[in-house]
Amino acid sequence: MRILGIFLLTTTLLFADLIDIYRTQGIQAVKEKLESQLRKQSYWENYLQDKDIQYGYYESTKYLIVVDKNLKKLRLLKKIDNGFSQVANDDVIVGENPGDKKTEGDLRTPEGVYRLTNKLTKLDPFYGPVALVTSYPNIFDKTLNKGGHGIWIHGMPINQKREDYTKGCIALDNINLEKLEKNIDLNDSILLISENEIKKSTKEDISLILSSIYKWKDAWKKSDLDGYLSFYSKDFKKSNGYDLERFKEYKKRVFAKKEDTQIHFSNINVIPYPNSLNKKIYRVLMDEKYRSKHYKFDGQKELFLEIVNNTIKILVEG
Asked: Dihedral sign, CA of 264, 270, 275, 281?
């Protein structure tokens, strides 16, 4: 009750401040005041206090498919209010060999976070009635030179037996697969695959990431090159192949123009990223609206970032 009272008092004082700022400085100053709140970790800690974020933070994703390779389990979770509800918990079979996928034909199921990009129905009966195609390899996998392709969630052979392992796909009973396919929307689903139980995210991590994203955006908007680049890892890779040095030279030319820019992020999703690197990595997916005199962009921004010493470092940007 005391915490609620402090929060209400703070909110009331902030609202009064905003009225004063608007009266004396105008609407742009109000916008900057609000933006400054989004750059504070304390704001996000308060915002997240009643939310279940053990599987990440989601503004637009409705379904999570969580696969534990060691337990050979697939769980379907559906977004509700401030967390997720379990819809299904099914047995699966995975790649014959343990560990993260590295090369074509290594008989391993990859670890990571993937989209479901397509549904296939015209299949060899060996794969069951339907297959859900994953986005492996994603851009992070590609920077690690991981090989292989064609990782699906598929069914079991119709009227025949099979081994209790796959070449790297995830396979489950046909009835459960059909239920899974009917229960989800491919465009609103994320697949998380881990070797063991997925490491839960924390409010500290999520609030750090969200506040840092807005600090990064602020440096970007102000053409603050040093501040902007401070968010990038020395091992950074851009999806177009640029390393940090080439990316720095490119941004130096862009920022030198000092153009007035407008950047807006929405539908932010922050997803804990299972990996075999023993790093605390998150995948961030969000919609970006960018406007400047010479460039306009409406699309998705994708970041793979690592938390190091209570700071974020962007490993890959798409």
From this structure: positive
